[in-house]
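Suppose a colleague, Dr. K., hands you the sequence of a protein chain of 151 amino acids and asks what its three-dimensional shape might be. Before reaching for any lab equipment, you can write down a predicted structure in token form. Begin with the sequence itself:
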Amino acid sequence: MKTKIMRKIFIFCVMLGLASLLEISAVNAASAPEIKDPPSSRVIVYYFHGNFRCASCRKIEQYTNEAIQKYFSKEIEAGKLVYKVVNVQQKENSHFVEDYQLYTRSVVASLVKDGREVKHETLAKVWEYLENKQKFYNYIDEEVDKFLKEL
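The predicted structure, expressed as tokens, is then:
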């Protein structure tokens, strides 16, 4: 009896996760402008996640996306800033774990000049500010702005 219930709960969680992945992919694809010739110097803000995504992980992604859209829409349109959501458990993305020494779900800002990354920083305080949306937004705004000023 317990096995059947656990199996149903597991299947429900997997289906819920898949549904939200499709929704998030659609939102990110719709909100990302197409840039014909991306500049060779830009800032990339990554949100790295895995296959399993808890409520806190989803909140970090949501708040990061909202803050980026709220404070940097002009930079996104100009191609100076790119926001990418990356599943590091997909084979083609697994290198990011080593590249950025990831040990949990993370937001990373990367400064790219002349097509090469020259600096990156893990924005670890996203976990600290998770329960205060405005502090979270302010933190993303300040940290990303520092990177943009170096372009």
